[in-house]
Amino acid sequence: MNSHPSELNESGETSRNLAILGLLLVSIAPSVSVLTGFAFKAGIFAVFVFIFTKIWLFGLPAFWHLKIEKKNFSWSPVKKGGWGISIILGIGMVSVIWLAYLLLGEQMIQPDALKAILDPVGLTVPWKLAAAIVFWIFINSVLEEYVFRWFITSKIEQLIGGKWRSVFLSSTIFTLHHSIALVFFLDPFGAFLASLGVFIGGTVFSWLYLEYRSVWIAWVAHAFADVAIFAIAWNIIVGF
């Protein structure tokens, strides 16, 4: 029996509304965490908020996908290749990040402000900073790809269609919470340049995901960029 057109329209509208709600619930969480840690400097409370938002960001997309939308579980397998282009793009981002730091680092970065933010949570201690860097590169960046590329980019693609529109809008959402954090330890010009860099990076990651349909391909380039960024942070806080 064929479905009535009104039933199809209602089903489509319900699916769209669910996508919008899921997108909003997930997109806002990173900014809440950043504001708590950087704007309010809430110390140990900020750590708890950070942990809670990570659990939220991991759990909600999975719950939404499996229980709300009734879709199947997937490990995002690499089926279309893309390792080589991701590595090349990642190396390119490392080069650009380090060149920008070498040319503009002293004008952009405020070491004292960075240390003031990291010190209350113990991240000026070398071993703790090293552990945090390992976490951010091998766990947090995977989580970000899972959230921002698989869930958010896919939801935007579902809502508005079109590869590049989805890429640019998801990159804007990805940049938002980074920009909030950046204004607290970079001067305005530095925060603008760094935010632009995050947006370009997000664009690369989103494009890689939509092109190859695997978060692992996007994560490789992301990990390269994180290595460059945290090497700079290590140099500022600890020194080589």
What topology emerges from the helices and strands here?
Blueprint: H1 5-39, H2 44-68, H3 83-108, H4 111-118, H5 126-160, H6 163-182, H7 188-212, H8 215-237
Helix pairs in contact: 1-2, 1-5, 1-6, 2-5, 3-7, 3-8, 5-6, 5-7, 5-8, 6-7, 7-8
Order of helices and strands: HHHHHHHH
Alpha-beta classification? mainly alpha
Strand content: under 5%
Number of domains: 1
Query: Residue-averaged pLDDT, rounded?
Result: 88
The N- to C-terminal Cα distance equals 71 Å
List segments where confidence is low: pLDDT < 50 over at least 5 consecutive residues: none
Spatial extent as radius of gyration = 19 Å
| Main sheet properties | none
The coarse silhouette is globular
Please tally the β strands and state the result: 0
Oligomeric state, counting identical vs distinct chains: single chain
What percentage of residues falls in helices of 4 or more residues? over 70%
Number of helices: 8
Task: Report a brief summary of the structure.
By secondary structure, the chain is an all-alpha fold. The protein is built from eight helices and no strands. Helix content is 82%, strand content 0%.
